[in-house]
Structures are given as structure tokens and as C-alpha cells.
Amino acid sequence: MQNVKLNNDVDMPILGFGVYQIAPEETERVVAQALEAGYRSLDTAAAYGNEAAVGRAIAISGIPREELFITTKLWVQDDGKTQTPSAFARSMQNLGLEYLDLYLIHQPFGDYYGEWRAMQELYRESHVRAIGVCNFAADRLVDLVIHNEIVPTVNQIETHPFKQNVQYQQLLREEGVQLESWGPFAEGRNNLFTEATLSNIGEHHGKSVAQVVLRWMIQRGIVAIPKIVRPERMAQNIDVFDFRLSEEEMVRVASLETGESQFFDHRDPQMVRRLGGHRLD
């Protein structure tokens, strides 16, 4: 597995396994299969409701803790400074872990400044190896950076062939922040899995469209966490380190850029109301 080095010298696998929208009753089995397939980086969140199932799969895997890279996310808090420690403690209890590899602010809403300052304390006290954010647009990310001591290690944002974030990735590099993709396959939207350019490149290499997309991300230095529930697809998607896209093929994939989200806009007022107003039970 290839790693990227975060801005605090922590190594993070460039390819991981996400569990968004996997039902809690299915998560333990699916994660166990992913670990058996060779994945060592797992991404969950308090809002997904399946942290405990991820924790059970880790516990029964027998894999040494130091070989795993575990990420979870903090949901929106009204008082980030005081509520974040207890939210973190609940996640750790669910996961059954003594420390976390990466803790992310899930949404740029609510008291995320207070959340970040509490997360800085968790980092200083070695409860987490790295801290970062999700879904932060450029202006909010830069504002967070210049007003805090610790620079986020990661920004996990929607990134796929139709929304490539090329300019934003350059800004993130300048700030020392690693780009991590959620939704690398756009959940199959815009007919991604049958798209002609990706299919043609895949045929040339004897690879699937999914493998081409993951290879494209790896060559751009983007961390990806695809969600897969079928074991054969899990094995296929981790088998992307034995080929390389040419410069011409990278340009062809770049031509698919639309600049549009395949899901929703985090700056849409109605979405801000929906996400920012939701609280976990």
C-alpha cells in the first residue's frame, strides 16, 4: 500500500475503505471482509451510526492496532469547546479504541471553531494522531488555518472525475493540507461506470472503470475511501498499484470535469439549514 505523509509526519494510506450508507447490521461483516481483502484504513463517522460495528470488526480481525489507520468524524456541535470531548469519548467507546488515527470535523457548520480548539487539545494530549476537516470550502479552510495554531492535516471533500478540485488541491498543497476524496465514484451518477473515456482507458489496461478512477486519484496524490460491499469488488479496487495511466490518459480523464457537484452544494442555504440544524440522538 502506498502512503501519503501528512503535515505532522503521520503516514496515511492513500487508499482506504469507507462505510457511509452501510447499515449498522451489515457493517461488521463488510468491514471484516475489507480487512481480509487487505484494506488497513477505515473511515466512519458518528453520524453514520455504525462506529460500534466497525469497532467489532477491528476487534475480531486480529490485526495489530499499529497496522490500522482509523478515521471517524465529529458531527455538528452547538458548543464545540465543551461538547467535543464527550462526543469524542462516545466515538472511542463505540470503536473500542485507545487512540484514533484521524479525527475530522464533519461539517463546516455550528461552532466549528470551538470544535477545532477542542480537537487541538485532543491532539496535544495524544488521543489522536492527526486532526482535520471535511467539506470545507477554500475560504473557510484558510480562515480556520490563519486563526488557529494547528493546520488541518486533511480536508475530505467530494472529488471524482466530474468534480476534480484541481485548483483547490493546489491551494491545499500550499497550506499543507492533504486532499481526501469522498464519493470517488460519484455513487455511479452521471453514468460514471459506463462513461466512454474511462471505459476505453480501462480496456487498454485490462482494468475496470473503478480501478481507472482510483489510479487517476493516486497519481494526483489524492487519498480515496471508496465504499464497496461485494468482496470481489473490494479485491479489485485495491488492485490498482500494478499499472499507471499515461500523461495522455490523465489529460483525457481531466476532460471529464464539469465543476458541478453530483450531490449537493454545502453553500446552499437550504442545505446549510438541514445539515447545520441536525443533531445526533
Describe the structure.
42% of the residues lie in helices and 13% in strands. It is of the alpha/beta class and 281 residues long. It has one domain: TIM Barrel (Alpha-Beta Barrel). It has an 8-stranded parallel beta sheet with strand order 3-4-5-6-7-8-9-10, with helices on one face. A two-stranded antiparallel ribbon has the order 1-2. Strand 7 (131-134), helix 5 and strand 8 (154-158) form a beta-alpha-beta unit. Helix 1 (24-37) runs parallel beside helix 2 (51-61). The protein is globular.
**End-to-end gap:** 37 Å
Biggest pleated sheet:
8 strands, parallel
Let me know the average pLDDT: 96
Helix and strand run: EEEHEHEHEHEHEHEHHEHHH
How large is the count of helical segments? 11
Our estimate of the beta-strand percent is 5-15%
Q: What fraction, in percent, of the residue positions are helical?
A: 40-55%
Provide the low-confidence segments as ranges: none
What would CATH call the homologous superfamily?
Answer: NADP-dependent oxidoreductase domain
Class per helix and strand makeup: alpha/beta
So, CATH architecture? Alpha-Beta Barrel
Tell me the radius of gyration. 18 Å
CATH topology: TIM Barrel
**Biggest sheet: strand arrangement:** 3-4-5-6-7-8-9-10
The CATH top-level class label: Alpha Beta
Global shape: globular
Count of β-strands: 10
State the domain count.
1
